[in-house]
Amino acid sequence: MRKTDALRKAGYSDEQSQLLVKLIEGDDDEAIAESIEQIKATVPITDNYADPSTFNGRAAKPKTVDAEELGRSAVSRVLHKIKL
User: Fold this and answer.
1) Can you give the pTM of this predicted structure?
2) Cβ pair 45, 10 in contact under 8 A
3) Domain-wise residue ranges, the chain
4) What secondary structure letter does DSSP report for 24?
């Protein structure tokens, strides 16, 4: 019962916790928590959200700028502040 509750607190659904309870080793809380961390590294938790970009088009990539262009733009922003 403690193992199932610990899996539910970790974010697993009831169905997943029933299946994964067999993989948990140990009887004390520390061993159970360590075993759950190992399970979380290999078995993903079911998320109840949808992909927001399902019907959106591909996002436009920003233009790539080389280091020389970055330097020019930085100088042009500061040049008017400098008294020559």
Assistant:
1) 0.50
2) yes
3) 2-42
4) -
